[in-house]
Design brief:
Blueprint (H helix, E strand, L loop, with lengths): L3 E6 L7 H15 L3 E6 L13 H5 L8 H10 L2 E7 L7 H9 L12 E8 L8 H11 L6 E9 L11 H11 L3
Parallel strand pairs: 1-2, 1-3, 3-4, 4-5
Helix pairs in contact: 1-6
Length: 180
Amino acid sequence: MAKKVLVISTSLRERSNSEALADAFAEGAKAAGNDVEKISLRGKKISFCRGCLACLGKGRCVIQDDAPAITEKMKGAEVIVWATPIYYYEMSGQMKTIIDRANSLYESDYAFRDVYFLSSAAENEEGTDSRAIQGLEGWIACYERAQLKGTVFAGGVTGIGEMEGHPALKKAYDMGSAIQ
């Protein structure tokens, strides 16, 4: 049975390396027959969370920008895939901001169970993505029905087009195609 998969590309750079991973994952998930939607944060207006907690009472954020529509898509997705560049050994600020803005999901009847993490960085050392993964796991821990199902890291890539032929692209595609 097809699953509803939401891929969130958090890089603001066109044709970024992490977006190449997101596209490969999405292609694999589509090839497996899933219903896949990819959202890019590029060009979106997303303000910082104010910490007002009005979202918990209203079921949606009260800030009027692009975040509530993205959060609503997250709520209905069975699978959420995060794709981010690694900045200073951590997820991008825009990824953290949309995670914070998704606070309204905390007490909701969210559909997601499986979460995946795709990242790229100039650094190629083992563990370059570990802090970002820990940050995402902190978010996942707040959703008892959700779990981190897999990660893909592409190290040693900085400029546009450097992902071409990178083995992480196949790994992302294969991970997406394994969604059942």
